[in-house]
Amino acid sequence: MRWTTKSFSPPQRVWGMPAFRFWGVLGLVVAVVVAVAVCAARDVSLAVEGAIVVAAVLTFCTLAMAMKVLIGREALIYYHHEIAVLSVTAALAALLGAPVLDHLDATALGLGAFLVFGRIGCLFGGCCHGRPARGGVRYDAAHPVPLYLLGLPLFPVQALEAALVALLVVVAATLSEPGAAFALYVTGYAVARFGLEELRGDLWRPYRLGLSAAQWTSLAVATVIAALALAGVLPGAGVHVAVVAALAVAALVVRRRTPALLATQHVHELSVLLPGLSPGRADVRQTSLGVRCSAGVSDGHAHYTLSRPDGDLGADDAGALARVILWLRHPDDAGDVVAGAAGTYHLLIR
Fold first, then answer.
1. Which of 107, 179, 192, 228 counts the highest number of beta carbons within 10 A?
2. pLDDT computed for residue 194 by the predictor
3. pLDDT digits (tens, 9 = 90+) for 268-301
4. For the chain, which residues make up each domain, given as ranges?
5. CA-to-CA distance for 96 and 340, rounded, in angstroms?
6. Among 148, 158, 94, 150, which Cα is nearest to 125's?
7. Please, which residues have CB within 8 angstroms of residue 250's CB and are 6 or more apart in sequence?
């Protein structure tokens, strides 16, 4: 696969199977092989690890079904599964009288291997996609990408995450001290995921105080690992405490940064603030980035006016925001962007 600024549409099927499912099944097979290999190398009970693998698969499926019931659609959130599967692993290993840290190492590395292939599946499937970039992967209408991003080059954040996690698994697999691989994988992934969140472009993801849910989770899991290390349960206390401190500083920096117009936070804000269509007086709304928008109806046609107080809303930004409005309000219609007076732009719905 070669990344260019030219249009590239990942295939939807691999060997007759939906691409996302194909890579997921392959990832599960590799994950089991990795977990068993770690246990075999440490002379740890393969029967116990087999029971853990079965419990992990059941936990994964249960969480997936629960999310579908709660929100009405399928949503696989990796952090939910990581926390649940590793918790089940620790509990089951302790219940069976097996070495907990060794099995946590094996399961964590297996989870990492699974995620590598899972993110490749995301790349082909179009989920967990990146933000608009100068070059990257372009998705067509066959992929579950918002209409305002169709055809635009998106940063291949799924591929980058797969590469980083693969490197993390390889490095962690070289550690033989019980608990070291588990701790390195969890903390290392927390650092990687915190940064990767800044490259993500999928819209419907919760943000609080300027940080995404995954970034808050990264801080939380890294803190838990550091606490366990300080308590002597896990090795490498100094490193893990330093990582938590670095993530805390990074969180402060991220909270103070100004997001781009098409950043997920701003698009979500615009979707909430977008004024309703009314034949009467225009209702002007303004986002946190200073984008002003009003809407109305003239001669039976909807129209929107976009501007910024300082008048620096360029044609490219206006066109990008128009695509967002079309996707949010008029997915089956087309529109024209016309420059107006005093730095305003008008989106006319056809």
1. 107
2. 96
3. 778 777 776 665 556 788 888 888 888 887 777 7
4. 13-205, 280-349
5. 72
6. 158
7. 194, 195
Helix ranges, the chain (H): 19-41, 46-71, 78-95, 100-125, 157-173, 180-196, 213-230, 237-256, 264-273, 315-329
Residues pairing with 211 in the sheet? 208
Mean local confidence (pLDDT), 130-141? 82
Q: Are the beta carbons of 349 and 337 closer than 8 angstroms?
A: no
Query: In 3D, which of 23, 263, 300 has the Cα closest to residue 158?
Result: 23
Q: Are 152 and 143 in contact (CB under 8 A)?
A: no
Residues 165 and 192: beta-carbon distance below 8 Å: yes
Pairwise CA distance, residues 42 & 106, whole Å: 10
| Sequence-separated (6 or more) residues with CB below 8 Å from residue 300 | none
Query: What is the CA angle 7-137-291, rounded to 5?
Result: 100
What is the structure's pLDDT at 232? 96
**Residue 75: CB atoms within 10 Å:** 14
The CATH fold assigned to 280-349 is Phosphorylase Kinase; domain 1 (3.30.200)
Return the pLDDT at 277: 61
CA distance 138 to 282: 36
